[in-house]
Amino acid sequence: MLRIGDFEIHSVINGTMRLDGGAMFGVVPKVLWQRKQDVDELNRILLATRTLIALNRRAGAVILVDTGTGSKWPADEADRYGIAPSPVAVDDRLRDLGLQVADVTDVIVTHLHFDHNGGVTDWADAEKSHTRLHYPKARHWMHRRHWEHAHRPTLKDRASFLARDYAALEAPGALTFIERKEDRAPCEGISWFVSDGHTRAQLLPVFHGDGGPLIFTGDVIPTAAHLPVPWVMAYDLEPLVTMREKEAIYARCRREGLKLAFPHDPHIAGVELEPGADKPIIARTLEL
Ligand SMILES: [Zn+2]
Question: For a surface tag, which of 1, 55, 146, 253 has the fewest beta carbons within 10 Å of its beta carbon?
Answer without folding.
Answer: 1
